[in-house]
Amino acid sequence: MRAFREAVEKRDLDAVEALLAEDVVFTSPVVFKPYTGRAMTAAILRAVAQVFEDFRYTRELEGGDGRDHALVFTARVGDREIEGCDFLHVGADGLIDALTVMVRPLSGAQALAAAMGARFDEIAQRAQTGQGARSAGRTR
Predict the structure, then answer these.
(1) What are 94-137's pLDDT values in tens digits?
(2) Residue 128, Cα to own-chain centre: how many angstroms?
(3) pTM surpassing 0.70?
(4) Please, what is the Cα angle at 39 between 38 and 45, to 5 degrees?
(5) How far apart (Å, rounded) are the C-alpha atoms in residues 64 and 34?
(6) CB–CB of 48/122 below 8 Å?
(7) The pLDDT of residue 6
(8) What b/e readout covers 85-124, taking b as 16+ CB neighbours within 10 angstroms?
């Protein structure tokens, strides 16, 4: 999805949040249970924007019906290089209703899990208070 990619590349996290359906389901590469809801997903994406360094998309793939997209990326977490993919599904209303992230290698996924785990209490608090963490992404 071009709008999502452009918003992420510009680090416009308010625009990213606006593209999420209220009941979006986010599936993390490092946690078994998916997260549901715009506020939680936005809070997670804002935190990961702080964790990932040198993030860039390298390829974009689209399904035949225009509702499924895959955005391949590279990034770094500390000294670990990561390759990954954001899988997006767009609902009939044009909003993202499913976002699944996968990363490799294992050492990169472990570094990501540790960095995000250190921020998770803040993420959960911002999502629970309904902030969607709009102010959290502005710490850089």
Answers:
(1) 999 999 999 999 999 999 999 998 888 888 888 887 655 444 44
(2) 18
(3) yes
(4) 85
(5) 26
(6) no
(7) 96
(8) bbebbbeeeeebbbbbbebeeeebbebbbebbeebeeebe
**Phi and psi at residue 84, to the nearest 5°:** -155, 180
Residue 73 tokens, joined = 């990326």
Residue 74 pLDDT exceeds 90: yes
DSSP letter at 63 equals -
Q: What are phi and psi of 89, to 5 degrees?
A: -120, 130
At 97, is the secondary structure helix, strand, or coil?
strand
pLDDT digits (tens, 9 = 90+) for 18-54: 999 999 999 999 988 999 999 999 999 999 999 999 9
